[in-house]
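Retro notes (design track)

What went well: tokenization of the new backbones is finally stable.
What didn't: we kept losing track of which sequence belonged to which structure.
Fix going forward: every design gets posted as structure first, then sequence, in one message. First example under the new rule, 208 residues:
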């Protein structure tokens, strides 16, 4: 009898630990999504960069999990530059994987924060992958308490219509309580840099 009770207790303990781990993963993912859901902008006195990046949650029953819509506007006139939908998911090793999608009818979702009904009606049929699976951005929590994300150029390859060739993309970002820092670089087949900043040189957007 004691053995049975002991075994049952072991199973209960294992189940409790597993449930706690699942809850912890979900809580971490939610905290990260909350940190990313905001408006970020470059400093008014930055002569080289003028960006506003705004991210809002998508609450669509057809898109289970954690999804965000983000929009990038540029210049003093805040011209629309980019619209994307991103999915955030927890990886087995504790990282958070950000997968990016394009909108098939982006004009429907301009200033999506003012169109929650449209965002919340999104389905997989409204989206298409932005690039191959190797272009996902992988975020990891640093010892300083910030999140650092990276797109690996060894796996992220896209065809550039403008250049007429396949290029490798490397992107880096740092997200914390005050800023969202990002940079991107492109490389040709030989590994020569085609565009982008030097390592460690970020565009800094401040939380508004």
């Amino acid at each position: 009898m004691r053995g049975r009770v002991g075994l049952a207790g072991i199973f209960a303990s294992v189940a409790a630990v597993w449930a706690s781990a699942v809850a912890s993963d979900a809580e971490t993912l939610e905290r990260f999504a909350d940190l990313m859901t905001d408006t970020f902008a470059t400093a008014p006195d930055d002569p080289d960069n003028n960006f506003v990046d705004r991210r809002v949650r998508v609450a669509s029953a057809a898109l289970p999990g954690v999804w965000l819509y983000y929009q990038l506007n540029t210049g003093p006139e805040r011209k629309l530059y980019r619209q994307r939908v991103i999915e955030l998911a927890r990886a087995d090793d504790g990282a958070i994987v950000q997968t990016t999608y394009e909108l098939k009818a982006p004009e429907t979702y301009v200033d999506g924060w003012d169109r929650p009904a449209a965002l919340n009606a999104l389905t997989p049929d409204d989206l298409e992958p932005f690039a191959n699976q190797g272009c996902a951005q992988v975020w990891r929590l640093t010892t300083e308490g910030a999140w650092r994300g990276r797109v690996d150029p060894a796996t992220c390859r896209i065809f550039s219509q403008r250049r007429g060739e396949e290029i490798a993309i490397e992107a880096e970002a740092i997200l914390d309580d005050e800023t969202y820092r990002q940079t991107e670089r492109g490389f040709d087949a030989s590994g020569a840099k085609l565009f982008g900043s030097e390592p460690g040189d970020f565009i800094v957007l401040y939380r508004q």
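Added context from the reviewer: Confidence is low (pLDDT under 50) at residues 11-23.
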